[in-house]
Amino acid sequence: MPTVVLGGGIAGLSAAYYLREAAPIVIEATSRLGGWIHTNKRPSGTLFELGPRTIRPAGVPGANTLNLIEDLNLEQKVRPISRDHPAAKNRMIFAKGKLHLLPNSLSGLFQTKAPFSKPLAACAWTDFRAKRKISTDESSFDFIKRRFGEDVAEYAISPMLCGICAGSAKEISAKMLFRSLFEAEQKHGSVFKGLLKEALSAEKKAANADQPGKLATRAKTERWSIYSLENGLETLPLTMAQKLRESKVEFKLNDPCVQIKFNSDSVRLSLRSGTSIEGETLISALPASSLAPLLTEQHPQLSRALSEQNCATVAVVNVQFKGNLIKEPGFGFLVPPIEQKPLLGVIYDSVCFPCPSGDTVFTAMMGGHWFHPQFTGKSPQELASVAVRGIQDILGITQEPVDVNSVILQDCIPQYTVGHYERLDEIDNYVEKNRLPLYLVGSSYRGIGINDVIMSAKLAVDKIKRQSSD
Ligand SMILES: Cc1cc2nc3c(=O)[nH]c(=O)nc-3n(C[C@H](O)[C@H](O)[C@H](O)COP(=O)(O)OP(=O)(O)OC[C@H]3O[C@@H](n4cnc5c(N)ncnc54)[C@H](O)[C@@H]3O)c2cc1C
Ligand SMILES: C=Cc1c2[nH]c(c1C)Cc1[nH]c(c(CCC(=O)O)c1C)Cc1[nH]c(c(C)c1CCC(=O)O)Cc1[nH]c(c(C)c1C=C)C2
């Protein structure tokens, strides 16, 4: 019996790719593969990314993605941005009516830069003086406010969380981005003291990391900060899908799974068309909230735990203006929620990857945690004019765009709220205790970046291979 992969986003495709020799079946609800990775090529040739646009090469998951890209023979298509490029160095926030460059050098940390009221390096002093608070989890906002001050929580961490998960720092677990800082306080009483001690054991940790391949080594030598691919990020899932079709992998598209039942030594999936698929093992690459209703009948407790996760809805508006309108090149800017503006942030796409026409391309992102009260009932066209006006006001642009595309990405980013990692432990324990042949991969669990979800698929397939050879 085959392994069944549920979901044809990048996590599902990666799982199928790592398992391709075993001829898995991939079930996807829609008629396209790639999930949120979606590049829209305009009639003018300009690329509008509707979802993610860049990948980080750093760390073990970063090297793993580069190994995959190398394996897919996509090395020639990689479009890197090096660490000294303005898009890598200059990230801004829009606060108190102005754009402010976030510190990007060691000396910058020792200067008082608006909108902060003291140098960011002074955080170390705040941290040394702050009392330890013993807890299993806490919101990112509360943790950073306690250890480093309210300024940092409001103007650095809150916008950063908007720029990664479109979420509220007041609800997102501190462990999502600051696990090592959080654990340093718990173990050593102070973040900086803890980090210092951990730095001394860093050599030991590095020795445990995977060996980077040729492309990952090149990324290190050439000091890449981020990268994309020729013709946009969708080149990655499109190439994977093509390679999977050339091997023995079967796809069932346009046919959502509506129910999952585990038997003593197999799993049966019922699809909306009435077809049922039997497999030995199931890799779910669905968002937890989409998997939950499929398990309600047989595993209500597991279904309830999965359904506790919410996802944020984001409006993505791609905008093209004639000519180069960017005075201060950078990756883009984020808007701290305290500013109460309709924009979460704006990416300067044409700074990263210039348009052959020399035009300016931006992507505005709106909504997220705040989508519902703010934008419920608004059409993509209405949201497009909010975004265009927002960009024009902040950047002082007087001309009208030559091209605009607006989409509402419903429930596109899982929110790792306080208690997320404890809930994951409960889910894992349930699966293990009930000996379910179920592997959970994708952005709902242990990381939302593309690297994380590809890595989650690799780890699940490695585990399946290990178990079947035991
Ligand atoms: C706006 C935005 C910007 C982002 N920017 C970045 C970035 O710059 N860099 C980065 O690294 N990451 C970024 N991300 C995150 C990254 O894109 C996602 O985490 C990743 O693409 C998620 O992949 P996935 O396969 O886990 O899930 P998905 O892409 O959600 O795939 C799940 C698939 O399951 C299918 N499905 C759902 N229900 C069923 C069912 N019942 N039966 C069968 N199939 C079903 C869906 O149709 C979908 O194809 C961004 C995400 C968004 C939304
Ligand atoms: C304003 C909204 C958003 C912007 N990007 C995203 C949202 C919701 C989504 C997103 N961006 C990144 C990731 C991957 C994280 C990872 O683990 O790799 C996701 C899901 C990358 C990213 N973008 C910003 C940062 C600080 C990061 C982390 C990695 C890195 O350093 O590159 C900043 C940022 N995001 C947005 C803007 C406008 C912006 C900064 C100016 C848009």
- Total DSSP E strands: 19
Alpha-carbon Rg, integer:
23 Å
**How many strands, what sense, and barrel or not for the largest sheet?**
7 strands, mixed
CATH topology descriptor of the largest domain = FAD/NAD(P)-binding domain
Q: Return the CATH architecture of the largest domain.
A: 3-Layer(bba) Sandwich
Q: How many helices does DSSP assign?
A: 19
Work out the strand percent: 15-25%
Low-confidence stretches: none
Mean pLDDT equals 93
Helical residue percent?
25-40%
Label the overall shape.
globular
Which class of secondary structure composition applies to the elements? alpha/beta
User: In the CATH hierarchy, what is the superfamily of the largest domain?
Assistant: FAD/NAD(P)-binding domain
How many domains? 3
Which hetero ligands occur in this complex?
A: flavin-adenine dinucleotide, the ligand C=Cc1c2[nH]c(c1C)Cc1[nH]c(c(CCC(=O)O)c1C)Cc1[nH]c(c(C)c1CCC(=O)O)Cc1[nH]c(c(C)c1C=C)C2
From the N-terminal CA to the C-terminal CA, the straight-line distance is 18 Å
Largest sheet strand order: 7-6-15-16-17-14-18
- What is the name of the CATH class of the largest domain? Alpha Beta
